Amino acid sequence: VSSTIDDYDYLYKVALIGDSGVGKTNLLSRYSKNEFILDYKCTIGVEFAARSIHVDDKVVKAQVWDTAGQERYRPITSAYYRGAVGAIVVYDITRYATYQNIEHWLKELRDYADPSIVVMLVGNKADLGHLRAITTDDAKAFAERENFFFMEASARDALNVENAFTQLLTQIYRKAL
Ligand code: GDP
After folding, report:
1. Best mutation site among 17, 20, 22, 26 for ligand 1 pocket (most ligand atoms within 8 Å of CB)
2. Would you say the CB of residue 68 lies under 6 angstroms from ligand 1?
3. What interface predicted TM-score (ipTM) does this complex get?
4. What is the radius of gyration, based on Cα positions, of the chain?
5. In ligand 1, which atom is closest to the CA atom of 20?
6. d(Cα 82, Cα 135) in Å, to the nearest integer?
7. Which of 91, 141, 84 is nearest to 114 (CA)?
8. Strand ranges of the sheet holding 10-18, from the earlier edge strand across to the other edge
């Protein structure tokens, strides 16, 4: 029996959002390392990478979209959110403005994404604890109020990156059952 990397039971589109510089691209490359497939890189500045994981006895493939810097100079288009069943909203724990700006990203989700989208809030750069500007408790309380999953992570130290994606995909999978 031959199997290819393209075999999967479920394919989930996940949108990675958050201010420029919070570490989205690094989180994605950290996650997709080892099984990296750069599926597409298009001129409008959207790229995505995919990786499959096992949930129960199923192969769940996440197709994760990254803005590739597009958020710097123009709003992300509705196509970015179309069909997305999960979103990872990233802020930088050392920059308060990126935490405040979550409101902007949530508005985009409300405007463009499916209302049932599963959201994971990620406070990235947890390795820079000495520069922390947002407490874990504040972010956790905010996430609970909004019904989001929450994790602090570090793309640099590979802390909780795998966990964040796995938890999000597992929740999407369970919800779809
Ligand atoms: P993006 O604009 O959101 O895609 O952010 P990037 O992935 O390009 O990262 C922006 C900057 O933050 C780069 O200089 C990265 O090296 C740095 N960075 C990303 N993740 C981490 C992290 O977990 N810890 C630290 N210390 N730096 C990070």
Report:
1. 26
2. no
3. 0.99
4. 16
5. 2
6. 33
7. 84
8. 37-41, 47-55, 58-66, 10-18, 84-92, 118-124, 149-152
The pLDDT assigned to 39 comes to 43
162 Cβ below 6 A of ligand 1: no
Provide the greatest CA pair distance for the chain.
Answer: 53
Expressed in angstroms and rounded, the spacing between residue 21 Cα and the centre of ligand 1 is 6
Question: pLDDT: is 74 or 18 the higher one?
Answer: 18
In the block, tokens 């597409």 appear at 40
**86 C-alpha to center of ligand 1: Å?**
21
Residue 50 CA neighbour count, 13 Å, CB half: 18
Own/partner contacts of 107-110, CB < 8 Å, gap of 24 or more, are 108/17, 108/75, 108/76, 108/81, 109/17, 109/81
Do 88 and 122 touch, CB atoms closer than 8 A? yes
Contact (Cβ atoms closer than 8 angstroms) between residue 62 and residue 165? yes
**Is pLDDT at 118 greater than 60 in this prediction?**
yes
Q: Whose CA is nearest to atom 19 of ligand 1?
A: 23
> Which pTM value belongs to this model?
0.90
- CB 150, CB 160: distance < 8 Å: no
